[in-house]
Design a protein that fits this description.
By secondary structure, this protein is mostly helical. The chain is about 50% helix and about 0% strand. It has helices at about 35-50, 55-60, 70-75, 80-90, 95-100, 110-115, 120-130, 135-140, 145-155, 160-165, 170-180, 185-190, 200-205.
């Protein structure tokens, strides 16, 4: 089971893998004009913000765009300047902060700040980010929101001791991700194989560590 996350719509930029979730044509958070000229200009800015080959200086400028959607595409761009990601991590838009938290190139500093975000969806993105440090994951493993703890249980950087603790979580969705994590100790998988929930037991059986010779 996966936590539902926010998606950016493919706004004709050629970006793959982003399904409808936010409406590109609506002007969402401002900056989208109603005229065809304004729409074309917006699409041009979105396309540039989404393109990894866009020069750093241009991405830095687009990170200050009035349109939240343009800033969101900069935030998810793997080539976005660290200084831009740092600034966008404090953006007023939850969508923008979510994409900064999801970007595997986001530095440790902004991730620390985002791990304290008031919105669980943002903290979940930090918990799932492959660039999140083990120390930060340990802290997030105690988050009050089950979705954040699910992200920690799913992260390959999570220390084995923390996975052991999460294997006793009261929410089955957290235990399920522990059962899926290839870093989970074999002794813990053995215990999860006796879990009351059959989905948890199912994923224990498919964990690669469970199939290793004893």
């Amino acid at each position: 089971m996966r936590v539902t996350v926010r998606h950016l719509k493919d706004c004709g930029t050629g970006a793959g893998g982003f399904q409808p979730g936010n409406t590109c044509a609506s002007g969402g958070g401002g900056g989208g004009g109603s005229s065809s000229a304004g729409s074309a200009d917006r699409q041009s800015r979105i396309s540039a913000a989404d393109n990894p080959k866009t020069p750093y200086a241009t991405l830095a400028a687009l990170s200050k765009d009035d349109d939240w959607l343009v800033r969101s595409y900069v935030a998810r761009n793997p080539e976005a300047p660290w200084s831009a990601l740092d600034k966008l991590s404090e953006d007023k838009s939850e969508d923008v902060r979510y994409w900064v938290a999801s970007n595997p190139q986001t530095p440790h500093g902004p991730l620390v700040g985002l791990s304290k975000d008031e919105r669980p969806l943002v903290r979940n993105a930090v918990a799932k980010n492959p660039n999140t440090s083990s120390a930060l994951l340990v802290r997030l493993s105690k988050d009050r929101d089950w979705g954040v703890r699910v992200g920690v249980a799913d992260n390959p950087n999570t220390p084995p001791d923390t996975l052991v603790e999460l294997s006793r979580d009261g929410d089955k969705k957290v235990r399920l991700e522990v059962a899926r994590n290839p870093k989970t100790p074999l002794a813990t998988l053995t215990e999860l194989a006796k879990d009351d929930d059959r989905d948890v037991r199912y994923w224990v059986a498919f964990n690669t560590r469970s199939r290793q010779p004893k």
